[in-house]
Write a structure and sequence with these properties.
By secondary structure, this protein is mainly α. The protein has eight helices and three strands; from the N terminus they run αββαααααααβ. The chain is globular, with a radius of gyration of 20 Å.
Length: 144
């Protein structure tokens, strides 16, 4: 082969590999994992927090909110984890602080989940719901 062709092929290969790895890295940026309709452990814990921490009482089992309660599916399109954590800890508007409810969930206590882990998990679950990757309802964990 001529050196120019080899150079072009090499550049194309490097560019293609870079795009492949960039795509993989972007996929890794998601805080949740869902495979075959099952969630990774952390996201599964977030689902349980949402269900048992009284979130669904106001925001609904599908997180779509209602007349007086925010639609979390829409809110999580622009809300980062730090903001969600702040709202859960301190409340917002008519929503009271809910961190105590979260940390008093029997499963959370039993597993020794820290506040940070709990908020990471809740954010992962809600972000997955907001992204349309995680359906409403109870899902199982990915078996290790």
């Amino acid at each position: 082969m001529k050196p120019e062709i080899v150079k072009k092929l090499g550049t194309g290969f490097v560019l293609g590999a870079s795009l492949l790895f960039a795509g993989h890295a972007m996929a890794q940026d998601k805080p949740y994992v869902i495979e075959d309709g099952k969630l990774d452990e952390a996201t599964w814990i977030g689902m349980k927090i949402y269900q048992r921490g009284r979130c669904e009482t106001c925001h609904g089992p599908d997180a779509a909110g209602g007349a007086a309660f925010p639609n979390l599916l829409e809110a999580l399109k622009t809300t980062d984890k730090a903001t969600l954590t702040e709202i859960v800890k301190n409340g917002k508007g008519s929503m009271p602080p809910m961190l105590e409810n979260v940390m008093n969930i029997k499963m959370i206590k039993k597993r020794g989940v820290s506040e940070e882990q709990a908020m990471d998990s809740l954010y992962a679950y809600l972000k997955g719901r907001s992204d349309g990757a995680i359906p409403a309802g109870s899902l199982k964990k990915i078996k290790k």
